[in-house]
Write a structure and sequence with these properties.
This protein has two domains: 12-133 and 303-316, 3-Layer(aba) Sandwich (Rossmann fold), CATH 3.40.50; 135-301, Rossmann fold (3-Layer(aba) Sandwich). It is built from eleven helices and nine strands. It has helices at residues 12-28, 54-65, 86-95, 110-116, 135-151, 178-189, 218-222, 250-257, 261-264, 287-290, 297-316; strands at 43-48, 69-74, 100-105, 124-129, 167-171, 193-197, 213-215, 228-231, 272-274. It has a five-stranded parallel beta sheet. A four-stranded parallel beta sheet has the order 2-1-3-4, with helices on both faces. The model has no long low-confidence stretch (mean pLDDT 93). It catalyses: carbamoyl phosphate + L-aspartate = N-carbamoyl-L-aspartate + phosphate + H(+).
Length: 324
């Protein structure tokens, strides 16, 4: 694996390798001293052209726990305001010694461009590009689901296991969501059945090519008692006004597609509730649902560090022993 750009071109073996490696990484995080020396002397750059809290901090924590040095680039206050191009920015960061770039960009395809254009020759990890892909988010979601599916709790899943037989429901703003696209690709690759639930206005064209089912009625899908429900943030920043014409009002959206305690009670006792964050409490999810015993949102955040450690290790460590 040279780059980590998306889940759409990932093989089953590659996905399992990352998830199994993440389990090894997670086991090391119970130690008093959590740092591993496998990337000592290596330099990683978080190159974020778009705002982020969870992804940036998670990647930085992952790199530092592998003993890498971290260069942090943010578009705000940078030479982008002076007209500097993506090419020049990336070449400048690599010239400073960065040996891998973690890239988040508002333009779909920007990480792929950096990986294949020949401007730079370092591994590229996609931290989210436009409405296209967010592979490490999908991987941490599958990591979390795999643990609960096989152990019934947040404990290590068996090596080599996947998500065969699980039914995962993804609800909300599919149209603007790179998380939805990455998850549909990866979950189906790992053997899960995926159902998307959204108003027709928040579904992209070409859905017939996606390996999933589509429904417009949340209550009907919840009645099938899926193993997991993933609520997506309504991305109001990509809309104009409260709903931007995509739905009549926030109140109507919440009534039709929001997850509350009543809807949560329909699920089985072992069903898990997921959200990639940040959450719009009171819109796509109620506070009592977000804070319920079904919620694994904070587990997702914690697991994200282990998954990103695994990705960095596989791209940069060149077989260095994890237990060293």
């Amino acid at each position: 694996m040279r780059h980590l750009l998306g889940t759409d071109d990932m093989t089953h073996a590659e996905a399992i390798q990352i998830l199994d490696t993440a389990e090894t990484m997670a086991a090391t995080q119970s130690r008093t001293i959590k740092k591993l020396p496998v990337l000592r002397g290596r330099t990683v750059a978080t190159t974020f052209f778009e705002d982020s809290t969870r992804t940036r901090l998670s990647f930085e924590a992952a790199a530092k726990r592998l003993s890498a040095d971290v260069i942090s680039f943010s578009a705000k206050g940078s030479s982008l305001s002076k007209g500097e191009s993506l090419k020049d920015t990336a070449q400048t960061i690599v010239a400073m010694g960065a040996e891998a770039l973690i890239v988040r960009h508002s333009a779909s395809g920007a990480p792929h461009r950096l990986a294949h254009c020949g401007w730079i020759d370092v591994p590229i990890l996609n931290g989210g590009d436009g409405t296209h892909q967010h592979p490490t988010q999908a991987l941490l979601d599958s990591f979390t689901l795999r643990r609960h599916l096989h152990t019934g709790q947040d404990k290590a899943a068996p090596e080599g296991s996947d998500l065969a037989g699980a039914h995962v429901v993804v609800v909300g703003d599919i149209l603007h969501s790179r998380v939805a696209r990455s998850n549909v690709d990866l979950l189906s690759l790992l053997g899960a059945k995926v159902t998307l639930v959204a108003p027709p206005t928040l579904l992209p064209v070409g859905m017939e090519d996606w390996p999933c089912e589509v429904s417009y009625t949340l209550d009907d899908v919840l009645a099938s008692k899926p193993e997991a429900v993933m609520m997506l943030r309504v991305q109001r920043e990509r809309m104009s006004g409260a709903g931007g014409g995509f739905f009549p009002s926030p109140e109507e959206y919440s009534r039709q597609y929001g997850l509350n305690a009543e809807r949560l009670s329909v699920l089985g006792d072992d069903a898990v509730l997921m959200h990639p964050g940040p959450m719009n409490r009171g819109l796509e999810i109620s506070a009592d649902a977000a804070d319920s015993a079904h919620s694994v949102v904070l587990e997702q955040v914690a697991n994200g560090v282990s998954v990103r450690m695994a990705a960095l290790y596989l791209l940069l460590a060149h077989g260095e022993e994890i237990s060293a």
